[in-house]
Amino acid sequence: MAVRVGIFGYGNLGRGVELAVKASPDMELVGVFTRRDPASVQTVSGAAVYPENALQEMTGDIDVLVLCGGSATDLPVQGPKYAALYNIVDSFDTHAHIPDHFADVDKAASEGGKLGIISCGWDPGMFSLARIYAEAILPGCATYTFWGRGVSQGHSDAIRRIAGVKDARQYTVPVPEAMEEVRAGKNPSLTTRQKHTRVCYVVAEEGADLERINREIVTMPDYFADYDTTVHFISLEELHEQHSGLPHGGSVISCGTTGRDGENSHVVEYRLDLDSNPEFTGSILAACARAVARMAAEGRTGCMTLFDVPPAYLSPQSGEELRAHLL
Amino acid sequence: MAVRVGIFGYGNLGRGVELAVKASPDMELVGVFTRRDPASVQTVSGAAVYPENALQEMTGDIDVLVLCGGSATDLPVQGPKYAALYNIVDSFDTHAHIPDHFADVDKAASEGGKLGIISCGWDPGMFSLARIYAEAILPGCATYTFWGRGVSQGHSDAIRRIAGVKDARQYTVPVPEAMEEVRAGKNPSLTTRQKHTRVCYVVAEEGADLERINREIVTMPDYFADYDTTVHFISLEELHEQHSGLPHGGSVISCGTTGRDGENSHVVEYRLDLDSNPEFTGSILAACARAVARMAAEGRTGCMTLFDVPPAYLSPQSGEELRAHLL
């Protein structure tokens, strides 16, 4: 029986989940739920669009609700609210607040007899899995995470908030020399600045003070001040032509040793090179929706992360098929 | 309470497990079990050495028995035999016979109320995990596995069986151009010959017919005939100086697409670069011993593979620690 999926929130990520569910023969898309006027929303696949309050009455129609809101203000509220009513999956990605979000979803889901899996993206998510496997095998290994080359939406938004900026796109770029040192097992001590650079493409309003905009970007605390940042002013046309995609990726590299005196080194690398960050993340959420439906059917409740999910639950194949073909 | 581990079989792999258990503060090595005369075996860590038949009487002293025999003739017998008495872990790696071995261990372990995890190496094992995660996220993706550069012990043994050969070491080497095509998302069709080459270092007996040895190697069915194989005759001293290690590694590369018309490509790569194949494999077995002890304590019985193990069970850290530091 197909897993019946609902999607709450229909931006880039919601569309990514929609495409992934449509590409999975064992899943069925019940509909998209939105805080906007449903009449104003056209789905990629022609899926039905409902207002948010319809979720109060559709608990019998949906096996898993995939929450596609933002981590800053949407998911901290929506996670516990809907985990009380539905099995849920989200991609909550504010690392520092994961313990709180986990506790909130765990409480609501446990009380409602539902199951939630949070933080199911690629970081947190697949990169977290790379870290846990490497560190379980090689205790005390050094693990480095490099992001990019890819578009950081949070940093692009931060630039857009500067006066005189019409639009902007920010790329996070790993420093190749730093990655090579890590891959060579040298366990270097790397500052923030030594690991990544930031490249910004900015469309300024006519007559804006470009020098001031440049200065406001490169000195912005938290976002840019700790990095070597390059700012390119370009036209709106060039932004649309050259920078309309949302590519991303990166590497988790772990280096550890074994032997009587640590004489043997081992390097483990997990690397992603993604044309579309939201579509890949949406595909992870869809696989996690499959897992949550199965584990909920076995009576599991509360909150989990990918650390708690046996990999086989993510796959549509049976145990026999998996052992015969993928093991 | 520490996980009490026994090791059955004390070759390179058994020593790798011993070192890994010693490097894990939450594990305790009860002893090494051998079919040889225990008095003839000196362990790296000074661990006690027992004859195989002591295993009949030590079921109360050991939480997990790690089987370190070979896949050809040892594990098919030892797996079911000891899964009836102990929770076991092994690194059975004959891909074609995994379903049979799984069924045998499952039957014995289920009847004995024990739990076994089989095929816990890096291929099968960590590479299998790379495959299942990528294929669950990107249905229909193409997955390629490249091995090396590394020493293949089976192929080295095959050369040693040729008349006139004193010793030999065989390296499996991936073809760089093939890997680059795959990483570029070109989904190439690759023959066996196009994916890997084989490089052999051979010490011949004095007066042996080198041309015949070379011919017997490169034309050997299954092992070498389907590959471009290079044979280098070297001295025993050079073999010991330059080729005494057992390095290995490789990459699992999956390429899939998302989007309305598959317009976005994604490349996922999991790569290992190992100074010591048996020590890294032994470290995986130790982590799996931790998982099997925990899952058995929860009442799980029968046979599993890494596909069935929630990653958190492999780690000594608590769920809270993992979510706070690795997610």
Task: Outline the structure in words.
2 copies of one chain form a homodimer. Chain A is globular, with a radius of gyration of 22 Å. Chain A has helices at 12-22, 74-83, 98-112, 126-137, 153-160, 176-183, 192-195, 210-218, 236-242, 277-297, 319-325, and strands at residues 3-8, 27-34, 49-51, 64-67, 87-90, 115-117, 142-147, 150-151, 165-174, 196-204, 228-233, 248-258, 264-274, 302-304. The two termini of chain A are 26 Å apart. In chain A, the strands form 3 sheets. Chain A has a 7-stranded parallel sheet with strand order 3-2-1-4-5-6-14, with helices on both faces. Chain A has a 4-stranded mixed sheet with strand order 8-9-10-11. In chain A, strands 7-12-13 form a 3-stranded antiparallel sheet, sandwiched between helices. The first copy, chain A, folds into 2 domains: 3-123 and 278-325, 3-Layer(aba) Sandwich (Rossmann fold); 150-246, Dihydrodipicolinate Reductase, domain 2. The longest helix of chain A is centred in the last third of the chain and has 21 residues, at 277-297. Helix content of chain A is 34%, strand content 26%. With 327 residues, chain A is of the alpha/beta class. Strand 13 of chain A pairs antiparallel with strand 13 (264-274) of chain B.
